[in-house]
## 1
Amino acid sequence: MVLGTRRVRRSTRIAIIAIGTDLAIAHLIDTVLTQEDPMEALDLTRRRGLVVGIANEHSLAWSAAQHFRNAGADLALTYLNDKAKPFVEPLARQISAPIFLPCNVSEPGQLEALFEAIRQQWGRLDFLFHAIAWARKQDLHGRLIDCSADGFAESMLVSCHSFIHMAKLAEPLLDKGGSLMTLSYYGAEKVVDHYNVMGPVKAALEASVRYLAHELGPKAIRVNAISAGAVKTRAASGIEHFDELLNETVQKAPLRRTIDACEVGRAALLLASDYATAITGEILYVDAGFHIEGMVFH
Ligand SMILES: NC(=O)c1ccc[n+]([C@@H]2O[C@H](COP(=O)([O-])OP(=O)(O)OC[C@H]3O[C@@H](n4cnc5c(N)ncnc54)[C@H](O)[C@@H]3O)[C@@H](O)[C@H]2O)c1
């Protein structure tokens, strides 16, 4: 990838001190060297990626898509259904996505059709960004103890198993290895008030990341999750008392602030790139450090 693809001219001023035998002479020589050095750059030129989970311009997946595209990748984007399409279509156009298809992971066959379209058009894939989660309103707002088996299974299917399913469909296309990414939240590992059913579902997603990383590692396919801090998005609006959660972050996080979607996008770009070729099975926190704190006195 990356090194050597962009070059920068560098002027260096060097001082050479020469010491003679008869007399010690210090020569200060100013030399201007002009040389070509490789500049570090996150470059996804000629890479092809799939981004699933854009609902609108506030979506974390949209930020990731913009960063992938700005780094040179070609992207396949999806929309949930006809109702969602008008919000996502202008975004797909903005980044000239050559593949733009519906994808409701609860609809049998839609994921298969999406991957078949990618196979036909590109023949292969380099990375995949999964940013979808869903739970029935009564389960999201109610106690976990009251969650029905059906509701639990539905949330697991959409928010967790869909990532496993996508990994399976992507595996044959990732012929040169690649990067699979998903989004999690701190509520996977510690109790967060009002996160309810999504807590155990995200815990299962994080465990799936590790098992998939283990299984796909020998094919140079990396699997990671970004555990993002709270950001106001459409999905976040379904969580009760979300503003309190944001306030708590500002109070407690080492950086004393919330994060923005762009910071998630940048981390996603890193994980998709060759700068992360040795990172797999990881939960990468992009949360202003919130997760390291235990007891904090305000
Ligand atoms: N916003 C946050 O504070 C935050 C923090 C940590 C993790 N996350 C996670 O980030 C991911 C993206 O959420 P977001 O905050 O960007 O909100 P968002 O509402 O923009 O994105 C959620 C996406 O899930 C999609 N989706 C829901 N059901 C689906 C289905 N059956 N099939 C296909 N797609 C479906 C929606 O269409 C939408 O695009 C989610 O996994 C969420 O849990 C969000």
## 2
Amino acid sequence: MGRNTQIFTSIFLLLLFSPQEILIQGFEDSASRTLKQEPGRAHEVHCSRERSRTAWGVIEEYLMPFVEQEQYEISSKCRLHPDNDMFRDQEQHKIHVDINEWRCGYCKKSFRAEKFLDQHFDNRHNNLLNVSHGKCLADLCGALHCDFMMNSKSSRSKCNPAAVAKNRHLCESLANRCFPINQGSSASRLHELFLRQFCDAHKCPRKSQPFPKGGRKQPSVFYLAISILTLMLLPIFYLIVYLYQREMRGGTQELKRIPQVGRKAKPS
Ligand SMILES: [Zn+2]
């Protein structure tokens, strides 16, 4: 009996405590998860992934074509250098498989939209982010006209002289740091270009639009549109030619048939 009571008591105790233990463990799990997530969230607060992406897009589209043309090597001290964008490595590990499929390049997990992959990066791979000072590309957005890009290239908002002066200063310091005039002709040409392309538009009242020297994407979009149009029109053109030829052949056959009937009719 004593042994049975002992067994019952232990089973009772087990039933009584194990759910709590599970609960506690679950709580600890989620607690550690939130603790693990917190640094990621902190980065999100301090450095916007979306704005960094826009800034990178601006650099790629409106600066890099000219840098490549000059075969100039941007120094890692320049904040426009890829190493100074904390999201660059993660962005390069995005695999866009299909319209509705984005894959993580680190663990190959698939997602239905880019924003879910962004969340996955924040939750699972935030240890890969280099959060040291000066690595937030979004901080350069003022100089690089991110708002102009994000508001579908319109600058209807009021011109704020203080903000404009600050952005102009940031813009000029980028030109000085990234393309120092004393480092050869390429650097000074790019320095001049950077001022015209990015800094001139920081002026009140707004007279000039940013990126007057143009960029990479515009011609490629134009050529893409032309080639798609050609690909669409080509089959239609061949169809018309085919139908026209068939019509012509049909016409000549009918014409041939008439004299044959005429010839056959003669001997009889
Ligand atoms: Zn992953």
